[in-house]
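Can't paste images in this forum, so I'm doing it all in text. The chain is below; anyone willing to post the predicted structure tokens underneath?
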Amino acid sequence: MKHLCCSNKELTKEFADLAKFLRVAGEDNRLKILCILKDGEHCVCEIVDNLDLPQNLISTHLKALKELKLVESRKEWKKVYYSVNKKTFKKYNSLLTNFLKNYE
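Text version of the structure:
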């Protein structure tokens, strides 16, 4: 018997999206960055100060988060400010909630 999660193409795409989200957001430093950003917009220099990691490593993590549209950025003069993309988080929250409901 083929499981529903394996037989429906759309559901399989949702699982693939959820798996990618968990891989990207589940990395320790990225979770810390998201924690910092949940309180509002911050520039890279503020994130560096909070995490005590090199700026280039922070930028790499931010790039991964931005590619998945978990964070947004805006440039003001020479500084780049990052914030959480709430619309994307709602999408992944819904996907994860629906997935976990199957195990209740």
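The mean pLDDT is 89. The chain has one domain: 11-101.
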